[in-house]
Amino acid sequence: MKNFCKHHFLFICFFIAICSVSFSASASSLTETRDSIVVDSITGDTRKYKITDNKALKPLYWVYNYLANSNKLRSDVTYDGGFVFGPAYNINTGFAIGGGYSALYTFDRNDPTLKKSVVNGFFQASVKGIVAIGVEGHNYLKGDKQRFNYEFSFTHYPSAFWGIGTETSLDNYENNVMVESKQLLLKLEGDYTWRLAKNLYFGPKLDFLYSYMYKTNDIIPANLPDYKRTEIEQGVKEYGDLMNYLLRFPDGSGRYQDKTQVALGLGVTFTYDSRDFVTNAYKGHYFNLQQLGFMPGVNDYGFFTTDVKYQFYTPLWKKCTLAFQAHGRFNYGNDVIPWIRLASTGNQGMGRGYFYGQYRDNNVMETQLELRQRLIWRFGVVAWVGAINVFHDFNSIYMKQTLPTYGFGLRWEFKPRVNVRVDWGFTKTGNSIIFNIGEAF
After folding, report:
1. Which of 138, 151, 345, 401 is deepest in the core (most CB within 10 A)?
2. 173: number of Cβ within 10 Å
3. What is residue 156's predicted lDDT score, i.e. its pLDDT?
C-alpha cells in the first residue's frame, strides 16, 4: 500500500511539473491576438480561442494560452525554446526538483524541407544526494548534407554495485550483498557525419566517460547462507574489501580494477535514417553501427566495442504509433573490460525499470516494442514490453538469464514533437519511475 501511494504521488507531481513555471524564447507566443490559431502538431487541426476582457482572469488565460501554444508549429522564428520544471517523487531517489529545456531550430529557414534540429536539456536534484545536469542535441546542417549529434552529462549520485555477470549480480541482489557508494560520472559523446546517399551518413565518433567512486560501504547481511558467507568473507580478506573482490581479474592473480576510471574511445559511425522526426518518430527506419577502439596507453585497458541498433516506426491508426527497437553492444579484445564500460541494463532508454548498471558484463542484446497512443489535447499514453540478455561471451547466452521489462507511461507534448515523459517500468527484481524529455527511443 505504501508503494502504491508513492507511485500515485509521483503522477500527481508530474502534472504539477507540467503546469509549473514555463518560459519561451519565442516571446510573441505570450501575447496572442483574439484570433490566434493553435495548430496541432500531429493532426494539423486548427482552432481559435478568445482572450478575456476580465482583468482578474487574464493571468489564468495567459497560462492557458502559453500551454496551448508551446507546441505550436512556428515558421516565423528560427529558434523556439522553453523550460518546464516542478516537483517529482521517485521510489529510488526520493523527493526531487527537476525539469528540462527543449528547443527547435533550423540552420536554413529558407528550406522548409530541412528537418528541425533539436536540443534537450535536463536537471534534477533530490534529497538523497542525486544531482544531475545534461544536454543532448541533434543537428541538421544546410541541405542536410552534414549532421552532428552530441550528448553531455554530469551526475553525482548514490550508487550500488552487485558485481559482474548476470548470475553473480542476481545472486548478490537476492542476498542483499552489494557495495554502496557515492559516484561522480562525467559523460561526453558526439559524432559528425557526411551524407553518402539518401538517408545514409558516415563519420567519426568520440565516446568519453569518467567515473569517480568514493565513500564505499560494504553491505554483507548477517543472515547469509553458509556457502555465500564463506565466499564473501574469504574474498574480502584476500582483496581488502568487497568492491575489490567484485572487480577482481579473472586470471586469479589477486589483482583488481581501480574504482575510479577514465575511458576514451575513438571510432566511426554509419547511419541509415529515414525517420520523420528524430526525438519522436511516427514513421521510418533507423539503423546505426558504431565501431570504437579504446587504445592502451590512453586507457588502462585496451579493447574494442561494436554497437549496433535498429529502430522501426509505423502508424497503426489515427494518433497511434508502433515503435520497435533492437540493440546490441559487444566488448572484446581484452580479458579485462573496464567495469564502467561494460554493457549494462538501464542504458540508452532501454531496460526501463532496472537500475543503471544493475547487471553488467561484456555484452548485451536487448529489444523492446512500444505502443504510443495520443489522447485528448496534447496528452498521450504508452505501453511497452522488452527483454534483455547480459552475457559474458557467445558461449554463455542462456535463456534463463533473460531479463523481462514492461510498463506504461504518460506523455505531454511540450514542444512540437517533443514530449515530457514519465514511465513506470516493471522488472524481474522490482520497478522504477523515470522522468525525462523526449521518447525513450
Report:
1. 345
2. 19
3. 92
CA-based nearest residue to 332, from 285, 391, 289, 282: 391
Say whether pLDDT at 187 is over 70.
yes
Q: Domains, the chain, ranges and CATH? A: 2-26+74-437 (2.40.160.50)
Between 415 and 311, the more confident residue is 311
Dist. CA 168–CA 201, nearest whole Å: 40
CA 143 to each of CA 104, 194, 196: distance values in angstroms, whole numbers, following the listed order: 17, 11, 13
Which residues have C-beta within 8 Å of that of residue 44, sequence separation ≥ 6?
none
Whole-angstrom distance, CA of residue 124 vs CA of residue 354: 19
Report residue 104's pLDDT band, with 50, 70 and 90 as the boundaries: confident
The alpha carbon dihedral of 12, 17, 21, 23 has a sign of negative
Q: Rounded distance, CA 78 to CA 4, Å?
A: 45
Question: For the purposes of burial, counting CB atoms within 10 Å of the CB of 236, is it exposed (0-12), middle (13-18) or buried (19 or more)?
Answer: middle
Whole-structure pTM value: 0.81
- Rounded CA gap, 204 and 55, in Å? 57
- What pLDDT was estimated at residue 87? 63
Q: Where are the beta strands (DSSP E) in 117-177?
A: 117-126, 131-140, 146-161
Residues 6+ apart with CB under 8 A from 359: 162, 166, 169, 170, 344, 345, 388, 390, 403
Rounded average pLDDT over 364-385: 94
The reported pLDDT for the residue numbered 9 is 41
3-state secondary structure 399-413: HHHCEEEEEEEEEEE
